[in-house]
Amino acid sequence: MLLRQLEYLVALARERHFARAAAACYVSQPSLSAAIRRLEHELDVPIVRRARRYEGLTSEGEVVLAWAHRILAERDALHQELSALRGGLTGTLRLGVVPTALPAASLLTTPFCERHPQARVSLESLSSAEITHGLAEFELDAAMTYLDDDELRHVRRFPLYEERYVLLTPVDGPLATATTARWAEAAALPLCLLSPRMRNRRIIDECFAADGATAAPVIESDSVAGLYAHLPVGRWSSVISHAWLHMFGVPDGMRVVPLEGPAHGPRVGIVVARDDPPSVLAEALVKSAREARVRDALDTLLHTYLDGGGS
Prior knowledge:
Elements: H1 3-15, H2 18-25, H3 29-43, E1 48-50, E2 54-57, H4 59-85, E3 91-97, H5 106-115, E4 119-125, H6 128-136, E5 142-146, E6 155-162, E7 165-170, H7 183-187, E8 192-194, H8 199-210, E9 219-221, H9 224-230, E10 238-241, H10 245-248, E11 254-258, E12 267-273, H11 280-292, H12 294-309
Parallel strand pairs: 3-4, 3-5, 8-9
Antiparallel strand pairs: 1-2, 5-12, 6-12, 7-10, 7-11
Helix pairs in contact: 1-2, 1-3, 1-4, 2-3, 5-11
């Protein structure tokens, strides 16, 4: 059994199409199909359900696929550890990040790359479910996500910061001069918020409900960038996580107003699989994150805007 055969199987399961899998592996379709048939022969089990087109894996194939992910991950870990012993960490760190943490991701990736100039980072915006799957299937080395996610199992957690929620509102709006604002007051404004399917929005809705209010945003977006695109117009207000200030800041003509309520929201952090041996790249990321002091950096930034350093 060759590692290349396992790579072909992983590509086929991912692409769910023989031609696309072959293209992803830079081989011809007949070569990929022949390699997988040889793998079936060597293991003496049917792996792929075949008809005119790819129809998925057999139950035996699913077992083989899980082992393929594990074996290839162990191979990558071996290369990483040897490269570190030779004096410089190489390879690609595969990092999944929930969309609402993306604005702060550079606080991790920049010091990591500075410390390991020969390594690379592949950054993906993923849902919590996709992160859980990616870690379990060895498709990710680490992830930046909410640490209280019940779906996360068999992982190690490393806290980075707690979300703090503030109101972004036009400087000529009714709450612009307020020292603090209640959630119910914010709910009465023309709002632009993330869509309800996103974890951050559901948390914010719980905060509104705790103050006896329900938000009815005029604009909903499935990305932080889409939300911020509407704010410079000067008409909308929004409730944001303070981590977004790192990337987007405060748009011209707006100011930050603290919201009354819990001082801290849910924790965001790094999660890595409980591999043995652990991923060298993931361990290097965790070490860089500890030295970066992400929580302190974001809190300092927030206080700068609250003290009048923003618009």
